[in-house]
UniProtKB/TrEMBL annotation:
Record protein name field: YbaK/aminoacyl-tRNA synthetase-associated domain-containing protein
Gene Ontology MF term list: aminoacyl-tRNA deacylase activity
Lineage, top ranks: Bacteria, Bacillati, Actinomycetota, Actinomycetes, Propionibacteriales
Database matches in InterPro entries: YbaK/aa-tRNA-synt-asso_dom_sf (IPR036754), YbaK/aa-tRNA-synth-assoc-dom (IPR007214)
Domain YbaK/aminoacyl-tRNA synthetase-associated per the UniProt entry, residue ranges: 44-163
Organism, as annotated: Nocardioides silvaticus
Gene3D superfamilies for this protein: YbaK/aminoacyl-tRNA synthetase-associated domain
């Protein structure tokens, strides 16, 4: 059975690749846990977490944001996708900085994030991100019964048990990632 919320029509994500970005569809097609992922169509003007939570009566703690952070060390750039609940914030200046071992971490500029992920801003998701990027997951994300994440496009979201986010390829569960 696929996850759902009242007021949203859940469809099996594997059966609806047209509702997700191409790299997301490709990643879902090869991920064994993808059978437990739903996709829901939403108004693209409501793709931002707070707007969607208000419009669809969803608690902020079910929203999981994918925050992209980059920095350099000795000329080498390091990028990480940080998964944190929407009611928390990634600890970029301490925990993320230490984990990716850079001097000055910063959010990946929107244009770069969109281009390099091949996803729309406001829909970037951990499923289907470029392989060299680290995937850091706050443990509170794993406790969410039904998590709402991006689908790679603004007109839909993915629903899945939060525990599955810790099973994504390359996922690193990090205590203290968010505060």
């Amino acid at each position: 059975m696929i996850p759902s919320f009242p007021g949203l029509t859940s469809l099996p994500a594997l059966d609806h690749p047209e509702l997700v970005a191409p790299p997301v569809a490709a990643a879902l097609a090869t991920w064994p846990a993808a059978a437990g992922v739903a996709v829901v169509e939403i108004d693209p003007d409501l793709a931002d977490t707070a707007a969607m939570s208000a419009a669809y009566d969803l608690p902020m703690e079910v929203g999981v944001n994918c925050v992209l952070v980059a920095g350099k060390r000795e000329g080498e750039e390091r990028v990480a996708a940080c998964l944190v609940r929407a009611d928390t914030r990634a600890d970029v200046n301490h925990t993320v900085k230490r984990l990716i071992d850079v001097r000055k971490p910063s959010f990946l500029p929107m244009e770069r994030a969109v281009t390099e992920s091949a996803m729309e801003y406001g829909g970037i998701t951990p499923i289907g991100l470029p392989a060299p990027w680290r995937l850091l997951v706050d443990p509170r994300v794993l406790d969410v019964d039904v998590a709402v994440i991006g689908s790679g496009v603004r007109r839909s979201k993915l629903l899945l048990p939060g525990a599955l986010l810790g099973e994504l390829p390359g996922a690193e569960v990090v205590e203290g990632l968010a505060g």
